[in-house]
Structure formats: structure tokens, C-alpha cells
Amino acid sequence: SSCPLSGLALIVLFLLRERFPYFFQDCAYMLQRLRVMIRMNKYKKSKPFYSIVDHFLDAVSRHPSKVFIHFEGRAYSYGEVDKQSNKVARALQAEVRLQEGDSVALFLANEPSFVWTWLGLAKLGCPAALLNFNIRSKSLLHCLSCCGAKVLLTCPELQDAVEEILPTLKEQGIRVFILSDSCSVPDIVPLSVKISQASNEPLSPALRSNVNIRTTAVYIYTSGTTGFPKAAIITHGRLWGASFSLFTCGVSAEDIIYVNLPLYHLAGFVVGTIGAMGRGITVILKRRFSASQFWDDCRKYNVTVVQYIGETLRFLCNTPKKDNENNHKVRIAIGNGLRSDVWSEFLNRFGDIKVREVYAATEANIVFINYTSKIGAVGRRNILHQFMFPHAFIKFDVEKEEPVRNSDGLCIKVATGETGLLVSKITQRSPFSGYAGNKQQTEKKLLRDVLKKGDLYFNTGDLLRFDEENFVYFQDRVGDTFRWKGENVATSEVADILTMAHCVLEANVYGVKVEGHEGRIGMAAITLKEGEDFDCSDTYKQVSNHLPAYARPRFIRIQPCLEFTGTFKMKKAKLVEEGFNPAHIEDQLYFLDTDKRTYVALTEEIYRAISSREIKL
Question: What are the residue boundaries of the AMP-binding enzyme C-terminal domain, all occurrences included (predicted)?
């Protein structure tokens, strides 16, 4: 009787696969998520609290001599990093008398000392503010004041940036230490000798006895494309959650991960480095991303997992083709912001790599992971996901930059396939901790009376849509989408089309105001491929073939290079402000001439004709 039964089982499995092609992947993902939830609950309830630091110490006792970090030709074992962190903690204690809960600002480059300094502070129960090493002067002072740090730790290569603001730091009573043997500046105290002389004996867990799941572990700054960075509060609970991302993407203890993203961000530090630390994985750490060294490094260190932000994989696709570019062991790529065209090209060129595109934000209380390799999607909705992260996609007015509400004052859910604002319910399971020292910005992220009177949601500020198969697609950020002729234009979609023109390397799309017209008209700053001139007719052909009339960029600005934030997001604010007046812009400008069906050079004469409305837009 077992034969017909097994036959029946096979038929059921076959039908399941045909009818629900993602059924098994959904089940596997949900199982992993459940395991994470059970572990999180166990840690929450454990007395004393079992933190990431305890997890690291367990990894150290299991394999003290396993390599934790490879950096510029030198390997540091789990045991070495542990001892080094004890030394840093003791040296700082001797100098500053740090108490549990005192925050310390780390203004350090991407190097191993970043990791063990953070660990040392975590062993003392002190939250660390991770400062972006690209920021200077006012922004830097702003970041320090948000988190209330009275101690700043830096390294020789960033000394100049600290010297610029030193008088203000002195005034505010902030002590500055530098990780070097000596320093000629009187108010910057060298710490390296003191660290090397300190004892490496373990520190008493009593020093961090008040740490729990809701305590602040780190402050991570979100690089606002406008205004000052905001300090997102990352609690120990959130640290646990984010560090499990590797596990949910299928990474195991045998893997070797390549971290080339900045450590002052959630992706490089929490997901990549702390995530690896928890599972006893070896990290290949880089000072910065390098497209030319990427695959050589992967081969040299037998890398199996890489991290990316969308632009980095595009840089890899722009490198000259090589014979051996498929010769590597990389099996998983984890990251976010990957465009569909780059995704396809990346797979075609570099082999069958499982791309795990993630939708998340530093401070957000929701995450999507595309665990199916479906190109272009940032994730999938399923029953468990809706239970863990209750969320909704709601109608949004792009002009007014606010949700559309019905006669009862509640928000309206969008239909399948429609673009909506993603909002995520704030619950005990998915809390939102807000921004340090900025009640106003925290309040701005809250949305009340969404589906019921009195409910509270986190506003992601992102526009997404989901299809019949429950795949979720990122469309644009609120503020990046603009309205023209009563239609919404998604800048990311227009940029994708522009880069299809053979002369265009990169495109940054935005909307600009035109006197006497409602909304904003499309404009793009582009860079050209090496040795190419701007091809007016080919560019026109691409935009007219693939975009509706209202979405076609009417103005094109040729730039030598585009400006990016520290996380490779394109800067738009300044370009929007500068508009399209050829008298004020030195870059070459072009105008889409609908009569001539091509782009033409934008002269002062054409500009005047647009202003006086002789030319109809």
C-alpha cells in the first residue's frame, strides 16, 4: 500500500509546485523566521539578559583561534579580537571613568579597531555613536550633540577633520582620544600605548548588568539627502533582529563574507560584521569598495557571501570583461537598491549567484527579504510576515506629500498592482525607537489613525507596490517621485530607461519647477561613457519608446560625475534648485524638442521661449 501513497504524495507535491510555484520557498523562509522569533523570545526573557556580546563570548570559547577578521593581509582570530576589546575597554576606563549608559562617539575608518573598540564599549554597557567618516564641521558637531557623547574616539587619518572642530569640542567638554602612539595636538590624547599596556583579562558582566532588549546599543546615522543626518536609536533587540538577516538569507558558519560597505552603517556593521560574529563566520574587511579588486579578493580569500548596495554591483558590471570572472566561490549576494537591468547583467556575467535583495531602513520596524531570486522584487508578502510586521500599502498624494484619507479620516489601501506608501504598525514585536535628541523628526515618522482610529504606524517614506503573486517592488522615495501633467513620475524608472541609451553611463532624474506650470517637469543629470558624445537621437529613441510623454525628461544636463551620499544614493536637492537656466549652469544642457523628435542644445533663446510660454511644454 505504500506505493500508491507515495505516488499520491508525488502528485500532490507536483500540483503544489504547479499551482503555487513558491510554496516550498515560502515554507522554508517561514520556518527560518519562526526559529528566529523563538530565539528572540528566549533572549528577551533570559535573566540576566543574553546580549550580542555574550553571544560573541560564546563564539570565542567555541573557536578562539578561528579567523574573525582578515584585513590588508593580516588575520585576527576570535580570541585576539576578544582580548583586544578588553584592553580598549580597560584603557578607556582608566582615562575617562566610563559608566554604564555613557555614549561614546566612534569616528573611525573601516578597520579592525572599529570592531574591537565597539566590543570593548559594549562590554562596559556603553552605547556607541557610529559617525560617518565622510562628514565634516557642522554636520560632525550635530552628530555628536544628538547622542550626547562626552568622548570622541578617532584615528590618525581623520585627525584633520577633528582639529577643525576642536575648539567647539573643548567648549562642550568633549574629550578626544586618537588611536595612535603619539599626537602633536595638545587636546587630542593618544591612546594606543595605553591600550597595549592594559590587561586583556575578561571584564565583569556586572559592568553591563542593566543592559536589556530595549537599551540603546548603537546610534546609526541616516544620511539625509537633505538636512543634517538623524541619529537612529538601535536597541539591543534591533541589533539581534538585524544580525539574524544573514541566517534568514541562508548563510552558515562555514561561509566567508566580504564586507566592503562602511562600518558606520547598519548593513556593513550590524548585518555583515555583527551578523558574522554571532555565527562564527570569517569576515574579509575592506577599507572601501573597489570594483577592480572585488573579484580578485573573492578568489584570494574563497569568499562565498558578498554584500552590496545597488550601485556597487553596477560598478562591477561596468568593469571590462575578463576571462576568469566566473571563476569564484560566491554563492550569495545580500543587499538593497539593485535595479532589474543591473541584476540581470550581474547574473549573466558573474554566474548563478543567489541575490538576496532586502528592503529595510536603518530605523524602520519592517523588513522584506526576496528569498526567491525573483529579479526586481524586494521581497514577498506571506501570512507569517503580515503577523510579524503588520503593514499596509496606502494611497498617497505626491503633490501634497501626504496620505489620501476617506470621509472618516482613515487611510485607503491601494489595490494589487497600484503604487502606495508603505506603512508599518508599531507594536511590541515591531517597535520604532525613533531618533536621538530629535523629537520632531521622530514625530514626523509617525502616522496615526491609519486603518482604525487611534492606531499608530511607522511611515517608511517609500512608495512600493505588490503584484498578484505577492511580490513586492520598490518604486521610489517620497519626494523623489514628482507630478507632471497630473501624473506621477518615478525617478528610478526614468533613470533605468535613460541608461539604456548607449552613450549614457549614469542618470540622476529629478523634477524642476517651471514658471506658470503646475507640478514639476522631468530633468536628468547624466554622465557619459568614456569616449562617447551625447547621442541626441538614440537617447530620444529610448525615452520615446519606453516612457509615456509626461515621464520623458525634457531637460538633460551633462555632468563630468554625479554626486553621491555615503551610501551611494544620488544627491538631488542642489540640482533641483539649479534648474535649467543655461545662463547659470556651466554644464552642457539639452532640451527635448517634440517637433524635431530629438534632443537639441538648450540655448538662451529656447530658455526665453519656454519662460514666455512660446514653447508649449
Answer: 493-569
